[in-house]
Amino acid sequence: MDSASIQFVLFGLATALISNVSRSRSWRSMVLFLASIIFLAFLSHYPLAFVPLAGFLLLGYGGLLVVGRAGSRWLVASVLTVIFAYAWLKKYTVLPEAIFLQFPYLTVGLSYIFFRVLHLIIDTGGGERQHLGPGAYLLYMLNFTTLVSGPIQRYEDFSRDQFAAEPIELGPRVVGLQLERIVRGFFKVNILAMLLHALQEDAVAQLVQPSPPALKVYAAVRLAVVYPFFLYANFSGYIDIVIAMARLMRLRLPENFNRPFSASSVLDFWNQWHMTLSNWLKTYVYNPLLIALMRRISAVEMEPLLGVFCFFVTFFLIGIWHGRTSEFIMFGFLTGSGMSINKLWQLGLIRAKGRKGYRALAMNPAYVSFGRGLNYAWFSFTLFWFWSDWAQIGRIYQALPAFEWLGVWLTVCVAVTVVLASWERLRAALLSIKSAQGPVLTSRYARVIYASALALTAFVVSILLNQPAPDIVYKAF
Amino acid sequence: MNLPTDVKPASGAEGKMARRDWILLPFLALLTITLISVCAELVARRTFSESATSLESCLVLTDPASGVRGIPNSVCWEKSPESPLVEYRLDGAGYRSGMEYGPKSPGTYRIVMIGSSLAMGERVPFEGTLAALLPVELSRRSARKIELYNEAMAYGFARNAALRFQDALRAQPDLILWVLTPLDVERAGFTYVKDSFNKPAASDSPIASLKNAILKGIRERGGSIVVGNALRHWLYEFQSQRQYIRSFLLNRPDEGEAGFLKGQLSPQWQAHVSEFDSYAADIEQQAKAAGVPFVATFAPNRVQAAMISLGEWPPGFDPYQLDRTLRSIVTSHGGTYIDILSDFRTLLGPEHLYYPLDGHPDAQGQAVLAELLAKQLAGGAIPELKASTSSMAGSSQRN
Q1: Which of A61, B114, B129, B209 is the most buried (most CB within 10 A)?
Q2: What confidence score (pLDDT) does residue B12 get?
Q3: Angstrom distance (rounded) from CA A456 to CA B34
Q4: What is the ipTM of this complex?
Q5: Is the CB of B29 less than 8 angstroms away from the CB of A451?
Q6: In what helix (H) or strand (E) does residue B281 lie, and over which residues does it extend?
């Protein structure tokens, strides 16, 4: 069962339907647990493939028990053990190859389970949580709506809805909204992302194969523009589907995207893109690291620079988390550098113009628009180390001389600035058309019209192409 | 556009829908779907129209003596959904030869081309076909007058080519050129059966079965849906090379259209090859007896061209396998085999040289085939056609 296929959607809807047969928390938990086990069974047909995942879950629970009983004394050891086990199972290249398991096993979802395990252990070590039973632990870890690619939900939020004596309401209006969101997500993954992926692959082929120089420049611009949109459509589409599915099971998952390409800086962007990942790292890496450094370095003038350093470390780790190869180290380095430079720029502007002056500049439409374009181009540049490997990056960059690449990135920056600024204006204009109930475009009537159009298109195209749903990029992490 | 997708815990009127909405919202959904479907179908019918007449009205499809043959001096027109309106003007011998059958003028080198629809130039106006372009390109390269008499015929697969081969010899050729396609092997023993090319691909997928059942139901009631083909045409054109190959191979796991792309030919394809071999032996023996040099070549189909250009394919597949097999068959009977397949490695997106649904090369595809064939024929494989030094210099300057 592919992650965003019709089968997956039907499976989720059927689970939601059965889950709503009773409002009792035991019933809903049992249905969610069984559905998650069935979903896991679809991922591999070999029982042995599940053993490492089961071992990791067991290790996590063991760590949780140890930290719960012995307190924070065992916290660091437990966290390090879990990190080592994760790196070992994910076969990080920093470890010797001889120690890796030599049979094929399931790693899908391991990265997201890793975050949940660490979150439980760290919070328990900090005395923030009471004992957690194995049933609740397994249900939280294996919840099929968050297993494959997130979003990363905190246990408190999960248990608040899942184990509530009185589950959250699910009226026809909410059901309608969730069905519309599933359609939107399905369309994004199966149609929009599929078409954008075709553009990306064609652009790569045109760059690395013999073709006229003008075509290569055009292909380079296309490649730089298309991939971030593709990734957004692919990942946010999947997140739309699972958030809506979970909501139909009376479970609220955290949002993972908030119009990320409207962000006018790298700092803002990571508050709006894969939000649950950056929030997790801010909570468990950035904040503790900053506090620890501030305790050691008491000079007040150093505080902003410590923040810059912590941003670098946090977002460097985001890069490394994505994969085990040197490409992801580079991706992390570029992402961390982008955050740090942006923070330094912000600090420099505040120093030069004062807080008031900086705020005024940050509100300036031209500054905001250009910031959007620059952020987009930077993100697209860093993503080369996300979707490609060194050999292919080498071939792609050798396709054009350096000054032409400079021209390509400048073109991308300017073009995206113009397009995103126009889109923001259009969006504002469309949302300003209002009836007594609010914007006409977000009314239930408008939603039904466009959801029907998207559903029809997605259904027809799926039938005509009759191919498996595209892979969710984040499933690989 | 970021839209709110949840509401605060519903209480009272906020969570309820107005009674009229229970009727209005489904009606709106239905209306939207109907409107889009009807508009899309109307646009598709306009842009993907088909002519009422077809090439088949110029053909005798079941002649016991010659298999499929053309009606002498007939003219017919056909527009398939993806192609322009094409005229098929057959000569006195019933071929789309482009020249009047007659004695050779002195000093002229005459090639007679045999083969099936691709070599005939189906779906392409005559002036854009291989038959029209190849002699011009060869004359330029070899600096001698070359003429090509085209005896290729729709459905002219191996058996039909063998049945009509005496026609080729009667045309006093200096060379016989057989342009092969995967279908020439798969349908080697072909006899015409109506609609045998229009059967929907069998599929295990419930969605594909549902689609086939719906289309069958519509056809049985005398209707048709054009928008599906229009959308497929557009999607196939838009897909990247990798996506297209993946989707093609996934949807044709059987031995039909993709069977010849396997690294190890299946028993079914081995039987096709064996049948083809017997006709090839017959044809080449006749050519040898008449003392006419015989050359065969193999033009890839759309997916094969894409695989070769991409340079990678899934395990268990090998797009060169059939080419190698045909080479060994043709050369074992004394003929010459020229390879144009490997030149597809250097072409960018060669799948766009074919009509995506129909599968025949379009005018651009025919031109590329003519160029590749001329390059190989003048490259030394046929001494009489070997490119002269001056024309080579001209060619390299042009390039």
Answers
A1: B114
A2: 40
A3: 10
A4: 0.84
A5: yes
A6: helix B267-290
Confidence of residue A339 (pLDDT cuts 50, 70, 90): very high
Q: Which residues of chain A does B10 touch, with a Cβ-Cβ cutoff of 8 Å?
A: 169, 171, 173-174
Which has more pLDDT, A324 or A67? A67
Dig out the tokens for A12 from the structure.
Answer: 């989720």
Say whether residue A442 is in contact with chain B using an 8 A CB cutoff. yes
Collect all residues with Cβ–Cβ distance below 8 Å to A93 and sequence separation of at least 6.
A324, A325, A326
State how far the Cα of A341 lies from the Cα of B292, in Å rounded to an integer: 76
* C-alpha span between B115 and B282 (Å, rounded): 15
CA distance A341 to A355: 18
Position B88 scores a pLDDT of 95
B211 has a chain A CB within 8 A of its CB:
yes
Q: Which of residues 412-441 of A touch B (CB under 8 A)?
A: 427, 430-431, 441
Nearest chain B Cα distance for residue A442, angstroms: 7
Q: Among B269, B281, B288, B377, which residue's Cα sits nearest to residue B330?
A: B281
CB–CB contact A180 B29 (8 Å): no
Element (H, E) at B78: strand B75-78
Residue B293 tokens, joined? 């040099």
SS3 labels along A65-108: HHHHHHHHHHHHHHHHHHHHHHHHHCCCCCCCHHHCCCCCCCCC
Residue B228 touches chain A, beta carbons under 8 Å: yes
Report the C-alpha gap between A279 and B46 in whole angstroms: 53
Q: Would an 8 Å CB–CB cutoff place B345 in contact with chain A?
A: no
**Contact criterion met (CB < 8 Å) for A444 and B25:** yes
Find out whether B92 and B149 touch, Cβ atoms under 8 Å. Answer: no
Q: Residue B202: its pLDDT value, please? A: 56
- Report the SS3 class of residue A143: coil
Q: Which residue has the tokens 């889109």?
A: A423
DSSP string, B113-180: EEESHHHHTTTS-GGGSHHHHHHHHHHHHHTS-EEEEE---TT--HHHHHHTHHHHHHT--SEEEEEE
Half-sphere exposure of B190 (CA within 13 A, CB side): 24
Mean pLDDT of A111-127: 91
Kind of pairing, strands B109-115 and B146-150? parallel
Task: Please judge whether B2 and A445 are an interchain contact, meaning their C-beta atoms are less than 8 angstroms apart.
Answer: no
Query: In terms of Cα–Cα distance, which of B261, B83, B265 is closest to B182?
Result: B261
Q: Give pTM, 2 decimals.
A: 0.87
Question: Which of the residues A239, A258, A271, A465 would you substitute to probe the B interface, choosing the one with the greatest number of B C-beta atoms within 10 Å?
Answer: A465
CA distance A448 to chain B (A): 6
Task: Locate the chain B residue with the closest alpha carbon to A439.
Answer: B3
Among chain A residues, the shortest Cα distance to B246 is held by: A467
- CB burial string A347-369: b at 16+ within 10 A, e below: eeebeeeeeeebeeeeeeeeebb
Q: Which two tokens stand for residue A154?
A: 């905190």
Q: How far is it, in rounded angstroms, from Cα A226 to Cα A204?
A: 11
φ, ψ of residue B87 to 5 degrees: the values are -95, 135
How do beta strands B175-180 and B109-115 pair? parallel
Q: Chain-wide mean pLDDT for chain A? A: 92
Cβ-defined contact of A463 to B349 (cutoff 8 Å): no
Mean pLDDT by 10 residues, chain B (399 residues): 44 63 94 95 91 91 86 94 94 86 82 95 95 94 90 93 92 94 91 68 64 73 80 90 88 73 89 95 94 95 94 91 95 94 92 94 97 92 74 45
What gap in Å lies between CA A67 and CA A122, rounded to an integer? 8
Instruction: Give A202 to chain B, closest Cα distance, Å.
Output: 6
Of the candidates B1, B6, B228, the beta carbon closest to that of A177 is on B6
